[in-house]
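Box 3.1 A note on notation
Throughout this textbook, protein chains are presented in two layers. The first layer is the amino acid sequence; the second is a token string describing backbone geometry. Keep the layers aligned when reading.
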Amino acid sequence: MRKSYRFRFYYCPNDRMISPELERFIAKRIGATVISLPSSHVSMVSHPTEVANLIIEAAKAEEPQAKVH
């Protein structure tokens, strides 16, 4: 049995390594919840709080009984 996942995705309009249009296309194709970060390619360095919050939100959604600190 395959479990259904709710995908999260963030894209960076200022990314010069991966096309933002490609990032949006991928996110739409997988039906992801999307956030945009005003950043370049290494957004996890320049926006660590936003990236961490997206990961925490995804973890809470998949395992509502789990305690996330």
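The chain has three helices and two strands. The chain has one domain: 8-62.
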